[in-house]
């Protein structure tokens, strides 16, 4: 059939043929960008069919397998009636119609197959951030034609190299106020069900670190056959998947992940996906610029990919935590610690604990040491105030030669961003400079400030985001670093806690914690649209700081 010529068939031409390789006519097709993720090796030529719309209007559909695009043309002699879709926008084809609610498909209980109609299920951008699904029905002249196209396209989609074939979905049944399972069923699962060749297994977590332990202890055959891990929950559940996958990968490769001086860790062969069903959902909001569940599902199903930086946290030559989001100490750490007592309040507990922490106004004294990224063009020695005396590093009684700079001070905030960190409380992002895979950490050091100025500071972060805040006040002590450490002064009764990806990390009283960047160590199912372009310090006019140090 592929090499057949057009012939008469029941008074009509046979409408399917493969023609020699040549450009498809029309500028709209020639300007479509080539999509490497959808390239099918060994496939070429154009598949062409004359078809009808459900309203009996004549159309021609062309599948250009050299450029991986579909062209739908209305045969009315007009060049304006032309629609072009990329292969990577095609989720699947079906021989039955789907019920679609606001762009989200519903798994049919009893699919009713149409006689000659093939339904193209394309994903599209509903607005600037959200993705949805739409169905285009195409009526062929014979059932055999329809079945041929359906079989060929289904086989083609199964061979697209970047689309996942085998994933495990971990659901925290208590996430999203207990609605995580409903979120998956109503907004996510149908996208996976429609994806050709995708096998998925759903697991409900039963305890803390259940997902991490499952990944570490997974049989080798099962682990090597996976190409994706998906979490349906908050940032804490994703951190379990991240930790388990990195530990498993480094152990299999014989790498010492405990050593903070290890420069090259092995990238896991799997990609990570997140369906945000927690309180903050910072990671998924940063990667997709939205916490929309269907959007996350679309990017997983079509195999979108972006690389993300990771930060490891070490104590005494021992790995204790892994972060792919934000790490904060001082006021933000104390807010999280206090909020744990009010989980029954839901997300509003953060506002309540923020008020309580502001009244208490915690200040912590300690030493921050760090090394700059090659992308940083500011010398901290020209900006940082003198160290608080006595400074053990200045006096040579303490310090680490691995770091180039240090500052001993009383801190209201110590904040490190691995990614821009978009949350409901920081909708414009917390980080001034870093992107989701640019090979730098943003380290912000805010010394002792008054309650009033701390409230002003947090309000401006929420209103403007870190990038615009820095433009308003370039005297803020924020640097692009690759590694750093923090050690509190030993004479403090409370050494404080860290807010690491929404989970509490205790700060040792007499020992430093070391933080190490690993650029683009993991891959996400997500487009790199959230990349924050670095702010050029040289273009920012210096002005007097609006923060008053107390």
From TrEMBL:
Entry superkingdom: Eukaryota
Q: Which Gene3D superfamilies match?
A: 2.60.200.40, Probable inorganic polyphosphate/atp-NAD kinase, domain 1
Report the residue ranges that make up the DAGKc domain in this protein: 162-317
| Membrane-spanning residues | none
Listed GO CC annotations: membrane
| Species | Caenorhabditis remanei (Caenorhabditis vulgaris)
Fetch the Pfam families from UniProt: DAGK_cat
**Per its record, how is this protein called by name?**
DAGKc domain-containing protein
Molecular function, one GO term:
ceramide kinase activity
Q: Name one GO biological process term.
A: ceramide metabolic process
Q: From which lineage does this chain's organism come?
A: Eukaryota, Metazoa, Ecdysozoa, Nematoda, Chromadorea
